[in-house]
Amino acid sequence: MKNKKVMICDDDHDNLNISEFLLEFEGYIVIKEIDSTNLINKINENNPDILLVDMWMPVLCGGGIIKIIRVDSKNKELPIIAFSASYESDKAAIEAGENHYISKPFNIDDFTKLISKLVS
């Protein structure tokens, strides 16, 4: 997946670093953001091919981010994978407009295959 950019937003440093390691190993360019309030600007600056977003973050939650993206004419088609360890986050993610939801912890092979499918 050379030159495909994956943006990850999670308020947990360990989750960001592990995801970055896994995805860079697969050949992706990884852009990380820990502060959800910076995410929309970072998306506009970097034009990622896919967004991975945690559903439960301080200040601006993943569902709120997804809703903002879905009404933005420039980014509304951006593939989004929402993830969380919280029970029933999948319902909030679906209502917000994500393309797919993954529960934490997730299977690494399923995770990378799903990303590959959504960016190709």
General description of the model:
The chain contains 5 helices and 5 strands. By secondary structure, the protein is an alpha/beta fold. The chain has one domain (5-119): 3-Layer(aba) Sandwich (Rossmann fold). It has a 5-stranded parallel sheet with strand order 2-1-3-4-5, sandwiched between helices. β4 (80-84), α4 (89-96) and β5 form a beta-alpha-beta unit. α3 runs parallel beside α4. 32% of the residues are buried.
Radius of gyration: 13 Å
Using the coordinates shown, work out and report the CATH topology.
Answer: Rossmann fold
- The CATH architecture: 3-Layer(aba) Sandwich
**Class per helix and strand makeup:** alpha/beta
Kindly report how far apart the N and C termini lie.
Answer: 8 Å
CATH superfamily assignment? Response regulator
Instruction: Based on Cα principal axes, name the global outline.
Output: globular
H/E element string? EHEHEHEHEH
Number of helices: 5
CATH class type? Alpha Beta
How many domain regions? 1
Short recap of the structure:
The protein is an alpha/beta fold.
Summarize the helices and strands and which ones pair or pack.
Elements: E1 5-9, H1 13-25, E2 29-33, H2 39-46, E3 50-54, H3 62-71, E4 80-84, H4 89-96, E5 100-103, H5 108-119
Helix pairs in contact: 3-4
